[in-house]
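Could you help me review a protein record that somebody else here produced? This is what I was given.
***
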Amino acid sequence: MVAAVHGAARAGGLEISLACDLVLAGRSATFGDAHLSKGLLPGGGDTARLPRVIGWQRSKWMILSAEAIDAETAKDWGLVFDVVDDAELLTVAESRALRMTRGDPKTIAQAKLLLSKIGEGTFSEALEAEIAALEVHWHSDSFQNGVGGFLSRNQSK
């Protein structure tokens, strides 16, 4: 999923963007969490996802202060992949989404699952999970097709 943020992404909008695989922002975009200023607690993943993306200190500031940051700051903090002109936002988002989905859907889903576990467990456990997934993948049609395609391209050179 690719988020194309134009304007304000506050509270629920921020939570939706955090659930996406890639976040692009128009220059006019702002990001913040105003839950506490309304007497509410975040309930869509802010306290779980935000620290993993921008760190504990910045997350505490964003959630506790209820102040918003601009698109360039969001990019600097790692909350946004790229900032583009508002008029180009949807075109760029569609292009990036298409680029990210060119592979085999099952393989993409497995890679996303492995990436979603970043921050869980130790580095060694993450490597073990990747190796275990690869051992299963070696026997899949998508692996065989991918290796076959790679070898045929290299033999024709």
About this structure: The mean pLDDT is 89.
